[in-house]
Amino acid sequence: MKRIKILVSALLLSSTMLAAEVQTNGNYVTIRPDGGQAKVIRLEVMNNQIIRVRATSKEALPEKPASLMIVPQKAPQKGSYTITDEGATIVVKTAKVKAVVAKATGAITFFDAAGKQLLKEAQDGKKFWDFTVPERELGMKTGYTVPEEQKHGLSWQMKFDSPDDEAFYGLGQHQSEEFNMKGKNEDLFQYNTKVSIPFVLSNKNYGLLWDSYSYCRFGNPNDYLQLNRAFKLYDKQGRAGHLTGTYVDARGKKLVRDEDSIYYEYGTPEKSAIALKTDNGGIKNFPKGFQLAGASVVYEGFIEPRTFNVQCSMFNAQFILYYSGYVKVYIDGQEVVPERWRTAWNPNTYKFSTELQKGKRVQLRIEWRPDGGEAYCGLRVSEPRSKQEREQLSVWSEMAKDMDYYFIAGENLDQVVSGYRTLTGKASLYPKWVLGFWQSRERYKTQDEIEGTLAEFRKRHIPIDNIVQDWNYWPEDQWGSHQFEASRYPNPQQMLDNVHQMHGRFMISVWPKFYCNTDNYKELDAKGWMYIQSPTDDIHDWVGPGYTNGFYDAYDPGARKMFWNQMDKALYTGLSKSSNVPLDPKGRLLPKGTQESSMIDAWWMDASEPNVRDCTPMWYRKALSGPTALGTSTEYFNAYSTVNADAIYNGQRSVWKGKLNEPRVFLLTRSGFAGEQRFSTATWSGDIGTRWEDMRAQMTAGLNYSISGIPFWGMDQGGFCVENRYVAAQQLFDKSGVENEDLKEWRELQTRWNQFGTFIPLFRSHGQWPLREIWNIAPDEHPAYKSFVYYDKLRYRLMPYLYSLAGWAHFRDYTLMRPLVMDFNGDREVENIGNQWMFGSALMACPVGYYKARNRSVYFPAQCGWYNLYTGEYTEGGQRLIVEAPYEQIPVFVREGAIIPFGPEMEWSDEKPAELIHLYVYAGQNGSFQLYEDEGTNYNYEKGKYATIDITYDDATRTISFGARKGQFAGMLKNRRFNVVLISKDNAQPLNLDNPAGKLVQYNGKAVSVKL
Question: Out of 606, 748, 827, 907, which one is annotated catalytic?
């Protein structure tokens, strides 16, 4: 009887499994599985390597507006895929990827072309929760009420099992010095220094891109816990229920009190009715009347882990520290966070973990020195989870219309990034001058300072292309007017013309922010296109007496057009009408050689998160930046910089439509999101601190941002926010000429940061006082000065190499700043290396991130041997060595088989044609390089006007071959010389860019081979 019951049950289960409803329509299949929370699942074949998955807990998939990240896609060819019903499963298969869906549960497993499993959904791998936007998050716009249907959506979580040898990368740019994200947590939202991109890649050669614009989480889907929820707390005397907080102000007055948590992470405006009504947390809970400026604070006591559903006695406690000022953290007598610093108005987060034992009480001590009257400090911990749970690939989205993601498979990570660009848009080909040096500071205050600084570079023969005007060039009370203040900038157009006559480029800062008294604010607000929560709550900014302001709704196409028109009228077309530059009879700029452009060359789109107010809670940030034209800011929280970039890119291109010699658009933005690369936009890492730990954090930040699919990234070389000790040191030197210890450290920090910056896509110096021009950092004979000039000149010598990489980024979906795992996947040693990278195909950069370090550990990937760039000395791959790193130089190595074209010495990017290229070839493996060239600044490349030369090296015969040139463009060199310099194990030569001994090849565009 028992056997019969089992058989009947099995038959019933089998019939249930086969009851799933399946409907196929062209390149997609819709499944209503028998179990699981997802009632409807749809798989759609996008192409041979990409499958889209949508799912919902509702009865039907929703109709959705056009995606903000995905561009229109071509339907796959019939016959290039199959969708088959195999009884218990539905199988969707292309030439490169296969997805198998279990009818019983809706769980999905992905395989590569060879049938190897890539990704398998975990148990309960799709979860959904109904979500309603809290009223306090809705925000305000003039004459607008959020429709009821826009207040509702779904929260969802997707989970996939992950083998022990898997590593995860991407997710954008974050500041905790984390590279491999396996087992780690990352909150995905936009903020100053934090850029979130919903794209994760695996060393198993696949990626997941999810089409959600809301706040998301990678890793733990739940919010970090206050200490009192995760631990039993005891004060420093061992009494239960709280920690001890000891506050000593600048005068020595002491205050001791109980602390049930450390959560002083935000403030809200005093006059915000909604904040007063709904939020009693944050810095208002500091001791009343206590002056934090100059104070010393210690939080201490003991923590004992509470009982969570974690089976082992030891668990990994994952903490998140939020801080301004100086902070250290000790747990169980060990320093787990060495001293860190961040300026008061722009706090930082830092994550760390430590092993704790259930039921064991350990000491916690936080030493904090606030660095301002308003300061922030917080320590929270992630809910404990098992190792298996921590290491899953887990993504949570706060609000969306459905779960919607793209599985991208590839034979390598370059193919995965290419799949991302297929979905979100090709990277624009950035202007050549972008690859040169940029000088910026916070801030040039007059026309004379702009012109004088560029003139000084030219006088000193230090290469530079771009001079940058930061904020506040307008009259004090006219932020958003886009007008230059006449007393400081008497003739803006003449300034622009003078910059161009010195062969410079000019970038200007424009914010999406408007003072309420400006005409531009009023024009936008009259259409209901301004977020008005900020002025409603009487928020005043930090300028002068403080002015009320708001940001515009970039999600509205009409607002985007008006925003650009206001800029165009004041800063672009309108400004150029007063130019002395000659135009042709139809008002078009004369061709290159007469005058290239009388207009502003590039746009610095600051605060594009949008950052309406610093240091506010998440809910209030949403209220300040909503509602949007598309829906609540809760749903559209992360995509603002993309639509804002759209406004500028398409706005400028609309000005030039049909005109000759259209200059390429270029934008620099403080935020970023999936698809932004199609708007010719680069990102910089925001207002980071001037600390060694901040410099190191930019290495991992830049690598994960770059592999996230957006190829151009940079940072404030030298750091933005400056410690007071460096300010005082510079002031002392200016008065007395004394270089004290702090100034020595400042100069070395700037030196190491500039060396680092040479080997990333954007080479840009920027920051607060002390001034950042190299002659203001150090005297001419100082090693800091000499090192900068050396690397600046090296950067310009590399221009043929660098511009080819930029061409590849557009035409071949290339990544310029490359984590080692992209080129050496399979070597397990590279999976966690976040402080070395390939800059292009040839150069491995190894910056120095510690004060007074004169050597560093370098890993040499096993797949090839390596040459020292400077000496030509050879090192076998597959080993880790300590290498020399003198003050003036960072280690840089060249892989076997590399081909590097070095051009002439130049002071700006297009000063000279590369008629003679010193072509360094590094023996040991076969190699190839495609030299890309075009006119450098216009859009003729879109019309096919460019040229390539394929160069190959055969190591067995030591033969270099130049293919026939393909393509042509105006001004192209028809004849040129290549001086081929072979570097080999038995022929080490120091780098010589003036007159190296090599074999001279005359090249006229026809194929030629030369034996070396």
Answer: 606
Q: What confidence score (pLDDT) does residue 526 get?
A: 98
Q: List the one residue out of 976, 954, 979 whose CA is nearest residue 965.
A: 976
Q: Is 477 an active-site residue?
A: no
Before 342, cis peptide (omega within 30)? no
Amino acid making up residue 148 = E
Cα 989 to its chain centre, rounded Å, is 37
Cα(811)–Cα(270) distance, integer angstroms: 53
CA distance 531 to 324: 29
Give the tens place of pLDDT for each residue, 762-783: 999 999 999 999 999 999 999 9
Q: Identity (one letter) of the amino acid at 805?
A: L
Edge-to-edge strand list for the sheet holding 97-102 = 81-85, 89-94, 97-102, 108-112, 117-132, 152-161, 393-400, 216-218, 186-188
Return d(Cα 688, Cα 789) in angstroms, integer. Answer: 24
CB 779 within 8 A of CB 812: no
pTM of the model: 0.96
pLDDT at residue number 584: 42
| The predicted structure's pLDDT at residue 586 | 40
Q: How far apart are the C-alpha atoms of 823 and 808, rounded to whole Å?
A: 16
Give per-residue pLDDT as tens, 706-743: 999 999 999 999 999 999 999 999 999 999 999 999 99
- What is the mean pLDDT of the segment spanning 973-982? 98
The predicted model gives 681-699 an average pLDDT of 98
Query: 30, 41 in Cβ contact below 8 A?
Result: yes
Helices (H) and strands (E) in the chain, counts: 20, 56
**CA dihedral of 364, 367, 372, 374, whole degrees rounded to 10:** 10
pLDDT band at 577 (very low <50, low <70, confident <90, very high): confident
Number of other residues whose CB lies within 10 A of the CB of residue 314? 12
- Torsion angle, alpha carbons of 758, 760, 761, 767, to 10: -70
Closest by Cα among 124, 102, 81, 108 to 16: 102
Task: Please name the helix (run of DSSP H) or strand (run of DSSP E) that holds residue 1010, with its range, or none.
Answer: strand 1008-1011
Please check whether residue 920 is in contact with residue 981, taking contact to mean a CB–CB distance below 8 angstroms.
Answer: yes
Nearest in space to 887 (alpha carbons), one of 734, 737, 750, 719: 750
- Using alpha carbons, select from 499, 423, 419, 400 the residue that is nearest to residue 454: 499
Q: Residue 9's pLDDT is what?
A: 36
**Residue 284 CB: number of other CB atoms within 10 A?**
14
Q: Judge whether 606 counts as a catalytic residue.
A: yes
Which positions ≥6 away from 800 have C-beta within 8 Å? 901, 902, 903, 914, 917, 931, 933
Query: How far is the C-alpha of 750 from the C-alpha of 746, rounded, in Å?
Result: 6
What does the alpha-carbon distance between residue 963 and residue 1006 come to, in Å, rounded to a whole number? 7
So what's the pLDDT on residue 121? 98
Give CA–CA dist 736/729, Å, rounded: 10
- From the candidates 112, 265, 609, 910, which is the catalytic residue? 609
Which of 211, 646, 687, 827 does the annotation list as catalytic?
Answer: 687
Q: For all residues of the chain together, what is the average pLDDT?
A: 95
To which residue do tokens 């039907």 refer?
A: 60
Q: List the one residue out of 905, 856, 846 whose CA is nearest residue 884.
A: 856
87-108 per-position pLDDT tens digit: 999 999 999 999 999 999 999 9
Residue that the structure tokens 């000499």 belong to: 786
Q: Report, as an integer, the average pLDDT of 524-532.
A: 98
Provide the 3-class DSSP secondary structure of residue 380.
strand
Instruction: Answer yes or no: is pLDDT of 627 > 50.
Output: yes
Distance CA 313, CA 303 (A): 16
CA distance 451 to 468: 11
Q: So what's the pLDDT on residue 13?
A: 42
CA–CA separation, 399 and 403 (whole Å): 10
